[in-house]
């Protein structure tokens, strides 16, 4: 195949399987998942609890638990990252993939100030002076709606509320303007106003930086308002995938229909999504 830079997906997952060995036999958390993520698109991964959404994102980050066995190919900019060593993978994380974890304390270090954590990646992956990195970190904290970034920079994670920690983590992931952003339920812990601010930030990152974003959510309203395409997961498999309009407008799979029926907000979200699209196309 003669693929050019522009056409090649920024992320390509092929035949991904994740197995946990157990006394009762092997358990397939992920069972043959394949999908592509293009530049400048938001792909939503939806599905019930335990369907394998987080395991999919941890596979891409190569951060699966020790007990998990992974098979399949994961290509980032055409490079198979499953073959990379630990050090090389550390460079890929942060610089090329940012991740917003479902649980903020997973990625924030309890013994380091927010300033240290916000500037660490900028100093490591971009050639910034400490002063420049600090200025950029402050700007990123402001972007995610933190009113007194100076004060927050001097604090430790445990001194912040859950919502604030979530925002700091989002700011840290956005700071490096990664080509790929994985956001695992990024707004679940946030109140509605901040939630829509954060979703706006994701759309902004996609439009301004051309990042590809994998947005994991169980909220169909969020999918309708934010995503371009959607993949529906259940029991470690992708049941159906397509544009948001196609999948939400005419779901093929019985499970997708059930998922949609349980979300009364979908109509409203879809209408907003459509009118925004039409506005953008005009
Ligand atoms: N360390 C582990 N050992 C064994 N099984 C695990 C482990 N971690 C996760 N699993 C199982 O893998 C499956 C997929 O889990 P995963 O966390 O990806 O679900 P999810 O779709 O992210 O769910 P949620 O919406 O609740 O976050 C689940 O059945 C889960 O119980
Ligand atoms: Mg999860």
TrEMBL record:
It is found in: Cell inner membrane. Keywords: ATP-binding, Cell membrane, Membrane, Nucleotide-binding, Transport. SUPFAM superfamilies: P-loop containing nucleoside triphosphate hydrolases. Its main location: membrane. Residues 13-260 form the ABC transporter domain. GO terms for molecular function: ATP binding. Coiled coil: none annotated. PROSITE patterns: ABC_TRANSPORTER_1, ABC_TRANSPORTER_2. It is a peripheral membrane protein. InterPro entries: AAA+_ATPase, ABC_Ni/Peptide_Import, ABC_transporter-like_ATP-bd, ABC_transporter-like_CS, P-loop_NTPase. Belongs to the ABC transporter superfamily. This is Nickel import ATP-binding protein NikD.
